[in-house]
Amino acid sequence: MFEAIATVCALSDPTVCRDMLLPGLEAATLAGCDALVAQNNPDVGRFAADYDVGPIRCEPQGRVAVFANVAPGVFVHLGIISDANANNQGDVANLAFVIGESAVAVIDSGGSRKVGEQVYRAIRQETDLPISHVILTHMHPDHVLGAGVFAQVGAQVVGHDKLPRALADREQTYLTNFGRLIGASDFIGTQVVLPDITVTESLQLDLGNRPLNLQAWPTAHTGSDLTVGDPTSGILFTGDLMFHQHAPALDGSVLGWEKVLEALQDLPYNQIMPGHGGPIIDWPEGAAALSQYLDVLIADTRAAITRGDSLGVAAEIIAQSQSGAWDLFDLFNPRNATVAFTELEWE
Predict the structure, then answer these.
(1) Residues 7 and 116 in one domain
(2) Are 140 and 247 in contact (CB under 8 A)?
(3) Spatial distance between the Cα atoms of 40 and 152, rounded to a whole number of angstroms
(4) Which residues form the Metallo-beta-lactamase domain (predicted)?
(5) Do 120 and 226 have their domain in common?
(6) Cα(301)–Cα(299) distance, rounded to whole angstroms?
């Protein structure tokens, strides 16, 4: 397989460059790829503003993200259990794609355009059907920053109705902070892409005899959580409403998350793909560890407030009994304790 790429460099520093994939221009032969480039004359600048774009050329296919085929038409990718850094390029969230008879839907897109390109290549190894939708399960950058690749080939971006405002408010922070963590070269071309379609309550997408049921939730893990159910396989894609092995991260309401987690367990699915960990776990029994963590987080926070602990003291002791159950606990639990304390002190 050959694909079209262009070397893209920062205008401010010509030494900061990377080869960027131009999706939609793939062919089995070099001649076929060259012909597609000549026929389509792609507008690279639209997706690489503020960069110097070199000539478009065709080369053998680049790095492909690893996906497991867990059910007919369902492919899942296990994100690295780590904070985003230069080694993983933002590939720290679970991602998926579902293939119907007429189209493909991507569920979350990774923490950089470079990760999104690797996901795109994985899809193209399985099917040449159009990618109709990229569904973003919530606002966090490790799930949304690869979406530009799919928008470039005409996919509609779908998210919670609170997602556009959440992304617009955080766009510069996400791009600055993730760019610093991942590195300027590998982050080239990464954009925040706002949804074309928003979900207020529920929405069904049809990929061709393959319905996907999208549901928007009240504030829980974040204020923009969306789940994707695939009745055909019995798999529910929860985004970060479910964590496994990776320490939970609270950026919304701990009480809301507890209620939503209870509601998720009543849905008619027997497996889930959490936002981190797994990547496939049995349901609803797989909810037990997160449910226990949230219970402890709430109970310990209320106890700290009753004792009159300061926020600084409370953040160091809340939920410490859970430390052995989760990877990256010391990185995420203090923030969770702070968010929970700020919410519950007004009960």
Answers:
(1) no
(2) no
(3) 13
(4) 92-276
(5) yes
(6) 5
Write out the residue range of the structural domain in which residue 8 sits.
Answer: 2-60
- HSE, CB side, 13 Å, CA atoms: give it for residue 199: 27
Look-up of token digits 């991602």: 95
Each residue of 108-146: pLDDT tens digit? 999 999 999 999 999 999 999 999 999 999 999 999 999
Neighbours of 15 (CB within 10 A): 8
Other CB atoms within a 10 A radius of the CB of residue 343 amount to: 17
Find tokens 């509609």 and name the residue: 156
- Asked whether residue 118 is domain-assigned, the answer is yes
**For 286-316, what is each residue's pLDDT tens digit?**
999 999 999 999 999 999 999 999 999 999 9
Dist CA 277 CA 265 (whole Å): 18
Tally the residues of the chain. Answer: 347
Residue 329 in contact with residue 311, Cβ under 8 Å?
no
Rg over alpha carbons for the chain, rounded to the nearest Å, is: 21
Residue 276 and residue 80: Cα distance in Å, rounded?
8
CA–CA gap between residue 183 and residue 292 (Å, rounded) = 37
User: What are the residues whose beta carbons fall under 8 Å from the beta carbon of 257, sequence distance 6 or more?
Assistant: 220, 221, 241, 250, 294
Helix (H) or strand (E) holding 180: helix 163-182
Does residue 333 lie within any of the structural domains?
no
User: In 3-state terms, what secondary structure has residue 67?
Assistant: coil
Does residue 173 carry a pLDDT above 90?
Answer: yes
Residue 233 lies in a domain: yes
User: Which residues in 185-294 belong to E strands, given as ranges?
Assistant: 197-199, 202-206, 211-216, 226-230, 235-243, 271-276, 281-282
For residues 47 and 19, is the Cβ–Cβ distance under 8 A? Answer: no
How many structural domains comprise the chain? 2
